[in-house]
Amino acid sequence: MLKGVAASPGIAIGKVFLYTKKFAEINTRNIDESMVKDEIAKFENAIKLTKEQIEKIKEKTEREFGKDKAEIFEAHLMLANDPELYDSVINMIKNEYVTADNAVNHVIEQHASMMESLDDKYLKERAVDLRDVGSRIINNLLGIVNVNLSELDEDVIIIAKDLTPSDTATMKKDKVLGFATDVGGRTSHTAIMARSLEIPAVVGTGNVTQNVAGGEIAIVDGNEGIVIINPSDDILKEYEDKLNKYKIRIEKLKELKDLPAVTTDGKQSMLVANIGTPKDVEGALKNGAEGIGLFRTEFLYMNRNDFPSEEEQFEAYKYVAEKMNGKPVTIRTLDIGGDKKLPYLNMPDEMNPFLGYRAIRL
């Protein structure tokens, strides 16, 4: 049994599909001056192909999930069109006589590392997008074709080190029972997409990929953050029963979601949702929430090395308020301390931290 972050609720039982990517072997050799033009032409062709691929993914995502979900690929297109990155690669090929793939790898990694060193969480996260675009350019340069998740022909549980925006956008959704990844947190792209697709997911397991070869039976419990590989007959039966009960419960709740919240003696109530990230508001609205009863703000402070800026907090709260379109939103003050510690906030050891330095008492 492996523990991770319960990223998207639900239970999935099925065959493992181990999603691995071919490792691009970068050509580190130097080239002759006579080859510079050819390498630049290869790079320009790869950039053109990359932009065409991203545009198709963006259109598909917008068609299937709406404009909001496709915005990330607008960012990918902007990165692919970035004149600074383009010029840096061209200059490196011209001045250092290196192959196009070597130049792209160097420039992308240099810029991504710089982004990761910044205090701004938004820019830190853009490093993932930049590497995603960079990998696509390099693969196009080297002719590497990875497994296409849009061609899945049976129901599977996808197990991967991580899933990029491109991976989740192109996968065949009706064949994916659940996700489990080595890395990621509740606010990672994989987690957000899993909740949006209502697919059970556990992320941040550390090493789930090292425990499978593909084809095993696995259980992904997105309610508890548990992944079980090759379960015993008893555990399998237990989870099959849980899954059936969960499905029945969800179907019953779906029938009720658009009905007014009225007690048997005729008193009207408001049915509101609790959310942990801005993107969770979409699920709340989809399920008929009349407001946000509790917006947990810890997500802004977790999985980072410093405090969020005022602007970052404002944008998160603004996003939810605008999505709720006048419906009430209650934002909870930061609830840190006790079992929720921040690496950049030194707090004293206490006999009972829940009664000490916690939340508003900080």
From TrEMBL:
Record GO terms (molecular function): kinase activity; metal ion binding; phosphoenolpyruvate-protein phosphotransferase activity
Any Pfam family hit: PEP-utilizers
Cell compartment(s), UniProt: Cytoplasm
Reaction equations catalysed: L-histidyl-[protein] + phosphoenolpyruvate = N(pros)-phospho-L-histidyl-[protein] + pyruvate
Record domain PEP-utilising enzyme mobile: where: 153-225
Cofactor(s) essential for the protein: Mg(2+)
Enzyme class at the top of the EC tree: transferase
Taxonomy, superkingdom: Bacteria
Membrane-crossing segments per the record: none
Domain annotation PEP-utilising enzyme C-terminal: ranges: 252-362
Domain Phosphotransferase system enzyme I N-terminal: start-end pairs: 3-126
Tagged with keyword Cytoplasm: yes
Keyword terms: Cytoplasm, Kinase, Magnesium, Metal-binding, Phosphotransferase system, Pyruvate, Sugar transport, Transferase, Transport
Main subcellular location of this protein, as a coarse class: cytoplasm
UniProt-listed Enzyme Commission number(s): 2.7.3.9
GO BP term, pick one: phosphoenolpyruvate-dependent sugar phosphotransferase system
Similarity section: Belongs to the PEP-utilizing enzyme family.
Stated role: General (non sugar-specific) component of the phosphoenolpyruvate-dependent sugar phosphotransferase system (sugar PTS). This major carbohydrate active-transport system catalyzes the phosphorylation of incoming sugar substrates concomitantly with their translocation across the cell membrane. Enzyme I transfers the phosphoryl group from phosphoenolpyruvate (PEP) to the phosphoryl carrier protein (HPr).
Stated name of the protein: Phosphoenolpyruvate-protein phosphotransferase
Gene from which the chain derives: ptsP
